[in-house]
């Protein structure tokens, strides 16, 4: 962090980013400046409680998942900037424009630029956990985070919170109802079918099971976990080709991390193109499914992305 940051932040706060008589993360400058400005909602997240002003029009969205949901709800007119220095998902390419401020990377926000933009509200996610306190000094901050132990319920709650923030609750309710119906149809087709979820990171293989960041394949879409003892963790459980052959699931769901981060595709296919994998049931029956890494790795939990994720799994079932 640059040494001049405290001075810049202080200047920005002096212009009205700090709260008056309240903690700075619980009030916007507009709210503090006028006692007649109403709050549309009180919203709670891992970053604490915030008051959302009724005239909210300047949101810094520092998380692609949240941006995907806001985009799905038709509220992009409230977005003033996002992290453009990271690999922006292709479905959000329209945000790569001079119209939006570049706030840095999804895991390292430029706090000086953020403060200078004077947002009324900040939306961030787990990748910015270490900067969360600093973000709250700039503006009231909502922390988008899905509880993987209750993935589908938590996804609904997070979506509705974002909908309340941007004033699109009825739209969100309808889209979630449709998504529930789509997921139910998929789970009817997966009964009795086993699966293993593998994240390929160059030459490393990481397995994910129930109640993990990719666990909705089991928890909501009904595939039986081929190994119920996989350790839950952000980065999964390290496995080998021999492990995959030993477990021999009906379906292999593959997420190519490098494809999401660098945009270069084909790495996962190359990594799994070996004699050990070729002898598995999934390979012989053409049940190795290469998932859309943008949706699963970068926007997992976004409203548009979730619709595509459910449809993608459903269409892979044979």
UniProtKB/TrEMBL annotation:
Coiled-coil annotation reads 162-189
InterPro entries in the record: ABC_transptr_periplasmic_BD, Bact_iron-sidero_bind, FatB
Q: Which UniProt keywords apply?
A: Coiled coil, Ion transport, Iron, Iron transport, Signal, Transport
User: Which CDD domains does the record match to this protein?
Assistant: FatB
Pfam families from the xrefs? Peripla_BP_2
> Where, per UniProt, does this protein localize?
Cell envelope
Q: Which Gene3D superfamilies match?
A: Nitrogenase molybdenum iron protein domain
Any idea where the Fe/B12 periplasmic-binding domain is?
58-318
What domain of life does the native source organism fall in?
A: Bacteria
Stored SUPFAM superfamilies:
Helical backbone' metal receptor
Signal peptide range in chain numbering: 1-24
Give the family, as the similarity comment puts it: Belongs to the bacterial solute-binding protein 8 family.
Could you identify this protein by its name?
Answer: Siderophore ABC transporter substrate-binding protein
Species of origin: Vitreoscilla massiliensis
């Amino acid at each position: 962090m640059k040494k001049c940051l405290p001075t810049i932040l202080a200047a920005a706060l002096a212009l009205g980013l700090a709260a008056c008589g309240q903690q700075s993360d619980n009030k916007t400058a507009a709210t503090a400046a006028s006692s007649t400005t109403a709050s549309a909602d009180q919203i709670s997240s891992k970053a604490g409680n915030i008051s959302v002003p009724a005239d909210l029009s300047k949101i810094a969205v520092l998380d692609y998942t949240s941006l995907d949901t806001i985009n799905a709800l038709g509220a992009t007119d409230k977005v003033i900037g996002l992290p453009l220095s990271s690999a922006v998902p292709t479905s959000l390419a329209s945000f790569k424009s001079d119209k939006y401020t570049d706030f840095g990377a999804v895991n390292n926000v430029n706090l000086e630029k953020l403060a200078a933009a004077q947002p009324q509200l900040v939306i961030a996610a787990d990748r910015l956990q270490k900067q969360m306190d600093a973000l709250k000094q700039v503006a009231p901050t909502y922390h988008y985070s899905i509880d993987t132990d209750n993935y589908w319920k938590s996804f609904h709650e997070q979506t509705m919170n974002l909908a309340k923030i941007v004033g699109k609750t009825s739209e969100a309710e309808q889209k979630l109802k449709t998504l529930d119906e789509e997921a139910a149809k998929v789970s009817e087709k997966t009964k009795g079918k086993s699966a293993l979820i593998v994240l390929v990171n160059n030459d490393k293989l990481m397995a994910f099971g129930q109640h993990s960041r990719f666990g909705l394949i089991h928890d909501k879409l009904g595939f039986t976990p081929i190994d119920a003892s996989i350790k839950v963790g952000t980065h999964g459980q390290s496995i080998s080709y021999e492990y995959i052959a030993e477990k021999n699931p009906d379906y292999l769901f593959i997420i190519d991390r490098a494809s999401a981060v660098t945009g270069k595709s084909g790495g996962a296919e190359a990594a799994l193109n070996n004699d050990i994998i070729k002898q598995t049931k999934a390979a012989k029956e053409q049940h190795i499914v290469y998932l859309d890494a943008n949706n699963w790795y970068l926007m997992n939990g976004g409203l548009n992305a979730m619709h595509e994720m459910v449809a993608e799994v459903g269409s892979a079932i044979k």
